[in-house]
Amino acid sequence: MVARMARRVIDPGETHEQQAALEAALAAARGGDAAAFQRLVWPHLRAMHALARRVVGDAQLAEDVVQEALVGAWQGVGALQHAVALRAWLFQVVARRALDRVRQPAWRRRAGALDQVELPAALGPSPADDAVGRELADRLEEALERLPARQRTALHLRAREGLDYAAIAAVLRCSASAARMLVLEARRRVRERLGAHLEP
Questions:
Q1: What's the predicted TM-score (pTM) here?
Q2: C-alpha 55 chain-centroid distance
Q3: By residue range, what is the domain housing residue 72?
């Protein structure tokens, strides 16, 4: 099963030499090489920020979450055994930091006052000039932001990052079936909120 998951995580375009280079960089990072660690995480920074922003709903706060996650990842990189697991592991670190933030009472008061928060545009097509498309994008944004944090995180990891349920479960520290239920319930709620906007 681990091998099957590893094959799904590895970019099909990556060569064995690239994988060997990643493993060497991970070994160097585990040995305290900060430059090697930076090379490892650099390709994942945009996705890490997108996940943090999806959970906390604020770009500036998401940057803080990613910074905290990077510090935590650097401190914990010694526990990572294989570079193939790096992406899911980084998502796990970010998700934990972001979910901790949204559980704080001060954040809940602030989020309630904001009512609506901006969402990353990359969740789907962004029809810049189409008024109907913009209306649908706004409704989708609203529906996603009203989801509970764990459902929002699970749906983002599935729809945006393409993680399977086992990987989502590892990020959220739950069973694969629980991860699947989070995604299904999130989709149901989004469809329910969009309502007539989805009808042809």
A1: 0.67
A2: 8
A3: 2-198
CATH classification of the domain holding 14: 1.20.140.160
CA distance 159 to 167: 13
Determine contact, residues 170/8, Cβ cutoff 8 Å.
no
Count of domains forming the chain: 1
Tokens standing for 119?
A: 């969402």
In the chain, the amino acid numbered 133 is G
Collapsing DSSP to helix, strand or coil, 13 comes out as coil
Q: Tokens for 7?
A: 């094959």
| Interaxial angle between packed helices 16-30 and 34-41, expressed in degrees from 0 to 180 and rounded to the nearest 10 | 140
Q: How far apart are CA 33 and CA 3, in angstroms?
A: 28
C-alpha to C-alpha distance for 20 and 45, rounded to whole angstroms: 21
Place of tokens 């996603």: 144
In this prediction, residue 1 carries a pLDDT of: 38
